[in-house]
Each structure stands twice: as C-alpha cells, then as structure tokens.
Amino acid sequence: MWRVPILLFIVQFPAQLWAADNAADAVQFETHVRPILKANCWHCHGEAEEVKGSLDARLVRTLLQGGDSGPAITRGDHVGSLLYHRVVAGDMPPGEKKLTAAEIEVLARWIDQGANTDRVEPASLPTGPVIGDDERSHWSFQPVRRPVVPEVRHPALVRSPIDAFLLAGLEVKGLSFGAEADRPTLIRRLYFDLTGLPPSPSAVEQFVHDRAPDAYERLVDQLLGSPAYGEHWGRHWLDVVGYADSNGYSELDSPRKWAFRYRDYVIRSLNGDKPWNDFLVEQLAGDELLPQPLENLTAAQADQLIATGMLRMGPDGTSDGAVDQNLARNEVIANTIKIVSTSVLGLTVACAQCHDHRYDPISQADYYGLRAIFEPAFDWKNWRSPDARLVSLWTDETRKQAAAAEADLQEIDRQRHAELDQIVNQTFERELAKLPTEMQSAARLAHDTAADKRSNAQLELIKQHPFLNVDRSTVYLYLPDRLTEFNKRWDDCAETAAKKKPADDFVQCLTEIPGQIPATKLFARGDFNSPKQDIAPGELTVLNAQDFSIASDDPQLATSGRRLAYARHLTDGRHPLVARVLVNRFWLNHFGRGLVTTPADFGALGQPPSHPELLDWLADDFMAGGWKLKRLHRMIVTSTAYRQSSEHRAELDAVDPENRLLGRMPARRLQAEMLRDALLATSGRLSAKMFGPPVPITPDDVGQVVVGADTRDSSGRPTGKVVDLGEDEFRRSIYVQVQRSKPLGLLETFDAPTMSPNCEQRASSTNAPQSLMLMNNAFVLQQADEMAERIEREVGADLSAQFQRAWQMAYCRAPSASQLQAGLEFLGAQAAIIAANPAADPPAEPSTPSQVALSNLCQALVMSNGFLYVD
Asked: What are the DUF1549 domain coordinates in residue numbering (predicted)?
C-alpha cells in the first residue's frame, strides 16, 4: 500500500532535482541498472528468439534507439522516458512481479545522470542470452586463488591462518578476539560440534584437570576418531542431499526399504575420512567406476554403487498408480538437478528450467545441458520404477545358496501337498463308505467331475452330502486335531529350510542401461510436451573457462560416461565453485553461519562472503590438503577464533552487532536430532548401535508421530498391540525413519527439515510449541525420569550430590554455591508439595516425593536454555 504515493512522488519529481541531489552518487549501467533489466526485461526484450516490440533492452544504445514505440529512454530526462513510464504504470514487466520503488528510483537517477556506461558497448549482440565479462566477473565464477595470509598487529593471537584472516578484519575496526572460553564450555562445544552429543561428567572432569599443553588437541583427535563423529556430520550432508526413507511426491509416500544403505555409506565415509573429491565422484557416478554387469561386487565396489543413492534421494511418485507418469518422471529429474546444483555448485540452477535465469548467467540451454548429463540414467520415455532400479548385492555363491534353499522349500511344499492329498483322499473314502453301496458310484462320479461340468443331479447330491467337496482347504473340518499337528510339523520344516535362504540384499542406486542413450530436448517453457532442439551434455557456460566438454558416449565405458566425466571435472581442483561451496558449508556447521550466508546461492542474489580471502584460502587449502575434512576440522576448532567465549562485549556489539567479523563465538541452539540424542545420552539410555534398517515410527493415540512399530489395522485404527523395539527405541536420531509425510513429532517441533526435495540450510526458530513439547511430551518426561534414576544410582540419596550431578549432566559444569543453595531449596519445596498432594492416580511403580522432585528438577534443567544452547 505504501508504494503508490512514493511512485506518484517519483513521477512528479523534476529530473533536474534528481541530478542535483544525487550528483555524488553516480549510477552506472553495468553495475546498477543492468541487473534490474536482466531480471525483469531481457527475457522478452533481447534473450528470446522473438524480440517483443523490436526493443532490445540489453544495450544502452538500443534503448536509446528504441523499438516500435520509439526511444525507450531519453538521456537526462526520466520523466520523458517511455521505459520509466511503463514500469511506473505497472505495464512492464507483465505479470504479477513488478519493479520495487527502489529499483525505479535507480532507473530514474541513471537516466537523469545521462544513462552512462562503464565501458564501450559491443556493436551488436546475438539473439538469446549472452555471457560477457560482466557476468563472468562475479566473485564466485572466478578461479580459486590462494591469497597471502595477512599480517596482524597481534600475532600472538594467531594459532592458524584462519585467525590471521579474521583478526585482520577485526583490527581494521579497532577490535580483537574475545577471551578464551573456559574449559567446561570448550569441551561441551567440541563434543556437540564434532559428535552431536554431550560429554559425560567424567569426561568433563578429566579435561578440566588435564593441564598438559596438548590436552585440547588430544581431545579434538579423540572426538574426530569417535564413531559418533560420522553419525553427526553425516546428518549435515544428508540434509543437503535430501535423505528420506520414503518416496514422497503424493499422499501415498511409499517406503524406500533400502535407502538406509546410502545413509550408512555416508557415515562410514566420514568416519573413514574419505577424501571429498572421491566422495563426490562416487555419489555422482559410482556405477560408472564399476565393470558391467554389476555382479559379484567387492565391499569397496558395493560402496561405490551405494554412493549413487544420492541421486535417488529426490521425491519419486512414479510407482504411485494415480499420478501423471510423464509429469512425475520429469519432476524426479528436476529435483535431482536441484539437489546436485544446490549441494555441489551452490547455484539456483533450477530457475533456468523454464526460461533463462533472470539474475544469474545461466541459460535455459545450460540447464538442459546439465540434464543431458543425467538423462541416460533417467530416461523418462523408458522409465524404470524405483523397485526396477534396485540392484542385488548377491554374489554367485549367494545365489547358489538361495537356489538350493528355494529348491528345498519347493520339495517341502511338494511333499506337504502330497501328504495332504493323501489325507483328503482318506477322508473322502472314509466318508464315502458311510453312504449306501448303491449311491457310492454316483457320489464318486460327482466328486471327480469338475465343478463347472456337474449336472443338476450331481449338484443336488453334493448339497445333500457336502463331504463330496472335501479338498485341501476344507479337510481340517473333518480332522481338526490331525491337521493342527500336520500344519505345525510342515511349518516348522519350512521355517528351518527358509532360514538357510540368504536375506535379500539390495541397493537403491542410479545406473544406466548400457547402449541406451536418449536424446535430451530443450523444453519450451519447461513443458515436456513442447520439445525443441537437441541439447548436448555440458558444464554451465559461465563456468566453462577451460573449454571442457563431455562426450555424448564414452567409448571406453559400457555406460555413457557423462556423469563420470562431469564428476571428475567438478573435483579436478580447478572448478571455481565446488571447494568454495563445500568449505562454506563446513564453516556454517561450526559457526552457525557461513562466510557466505546463502550456502545454496553463490549467484547474483546470494550474499557476498564476509571474508572472501579467507574463503578462497580455505578452499585452496582444502584441495591442497587432499580434500580431507578431518584436517579442516582440526584447523578450525583449534583456532583462537573458535576457542573464544560467546560473551557479548559492548565495543564489539557497537561496531559489529551481527558478529559477522567473529569477534566472539556465536551461541547456537541444538538442532532437533542433537536435542533428542542429548536427552537420551543424559538419561543414560542412548544406544551405541550403528547402521542398518531405520527405526520405525508410528502415530500415537493422539496422532503425534513417535518412535514405535506401526500396529494399526488396514483402516488405520489402533489395535492396542505394542511391539517392544528393545534398544532400537533409544538409537540416535539419524537412524530413525525419515518419512516425508510423517516427521517425528519432537524433531519437527525443533525445526527438523522437510525434504522437498532437500534442505539447503536449516532454520532455528523459537516458539511456544517447543516449550509445550518439553513440558508435556511423553519421551521428554520419560528421559527426565530415567535421568533422575541414573543420578540416584550413581550418587545415592544425598540431595546435594544429586543436584550437583544433575547440573553437571545438563550443563557440563559444576553449580556455583548460590545455584546449589537454590537447587536444594527447590528439591525440598518440591518434595513437600508432592508429599502434601499425593497423586489421585499413582503410577504402577510408586516413587517417593524426593524421587519425583528430582525428576522434576531434571525436566526443568533439560528445558532450559543452558541445555538447549551451546555457548
């Protein structure tokens, strides 16, 4: 509503005043105006095959020349410029999206200042998108170059080059790093950051009292060597690739039984510190590294195949019967391209699916060039359903065992039916003998005659004597005891034989059918019903400074080789985006915010890096160091910057209130999975079991999704049956089933992402349902009770010892004297209230008032910001 009077004011504002008031603020075409016109005008006026109104808006010269309606601009006179009037009136651009008041102001100022350019324009431009120096000059499209580590005024604060870059920025503002955090804070920060779990009180005590000079570094190495490291950092990558145990797309949201193998591959790879160039190549083209056919694979080869599960993570409704198959198939491909581009390239490539990208130099042809890389595996006209894409990991020996077991089962089935047929015949003959002799011949004939060939007389005879229809399915009516024993004996026999059959062992992966390479068409307006010219596979034009090309069919491989060529190109160390995007994500997960705060958009609309030299130094060093993530972790977490206190300082907040310069360590809230895992660890119930099929989820009695086996009937009604999951109920959250349509209630409340198709960056909200969840959720209450029981087991009934242990478990530090005193008063007051007000419906296992008070204390502690946040 506020735009109307502002626009009227702009229209009436004299051009001379614009020029006078803004003479000091020169507006240039390339820097200020070109992006506005590209985003809003060029798709009709310059980049399309048909230039509307004969007006090419890509050059100042052609704007001055104009089109069918005359000149678009008049130098020095925005009021007399047709372009200005059309955008103010809202006639241009067409559609709902209009220029903002600020953009219109830029146009007016530029015109009034003479419609200047920074450089001489080309004599002409070809029809369609043109990528020139202006587009290629964007910071993220430049080659990664290792900058010189800056000198600082306080070199004693520099533990690593990271510190030098950050400290140099602080010193320019007259600032420095904050004080180092105390040891309890550091160990809690490190544990959560590297493993996603809290340290035990004994681990905290040991570290606090370890005064060896390398105590901190040894702790870092210990945590990087923990299996929990891969589970925690694996979760970060699974976000980016959109991991889920269900297909999504429609309400059916069918399960992905074998997706967990990819999750396990990620965890194993990170724990093993697999170089990220290999990690990416395997995920993009692991199948193309293997000999065909994909049989008798070694464990290492199976991992390379499993890795391609990354490309099968997008929603896939093609196995759902009630969907438009062509639409669903093409959406699978589009989602896969989005996952790859946002996770590896850090660009919004998907915006070019229907038209040239309005902000970044990515043409529609570029988009379909990327699609052509993946289309041999996603042949939408010869589609393979999710189940048809599964590849068995059985070896020849396994298949031989399975065949032998299957033969045994068939033989058991044959013998079972033969014996059952004998019983049926014996039963028939016994019953037949009860009939008069003169009827037996006709009765036998009726029994032996096929049901659809029986005469009316035979049908009447069978109606009078139903035993004449005795068969395998009805003989139990005559011999119930004998059939019970018969069935048990043969069932036991079949069960014993079935145990000899190897379990199914499939991989959800992406593969190509050798020799089957479809043509990739550019779709007009992104509509697969409107195919246009063929498009060859290729890199985005703006990134292709090396004249890189991809063969349509690699003669050295049984497959097309397109994905393998592209993956090796991305990881050859010369690509301008890949390493930058990766190290920025790693930085984000250490500091809560990336050096580039838009981790999936390094393009024109993304934010520039706060420390561009540091970003490039990290990217170059990461590649030079063998693409090893644990090496980068060590460098980051041992830096002075990382070891700072999170305490605010007035002088820092005055200059850098958002802490972009990192003059203190940001405080961060636990992510959803970290919260659940921390509750389990604190209560002592956390299972260390790794890998395997996901822990099931189910709606509870009130519809909230919880961990548990789904025992509802076919109509979705509860049966009351409870299945004991054993330790699986208490496994880490990364192993809990991820069903797109049914997120786990506790995780959803604390911002666990919905994979549609992936999560580019997690949100961290604060809202009332989170407090209500911690107050009332059965899981949270159970863990508080378990925590209280654990404390009582470990320290006995002494209230002071109980409170101190509870405080240590929750916050990883000892309470102060005043906190201890307040805690003892709380426990005493709670016990008195509970004793005076006994429960109307006492629990099956009665608790004393002091035990209930301790449980209440534990719940209060895990609900607090001290538990939910890491300083």
From this structure: 161-376
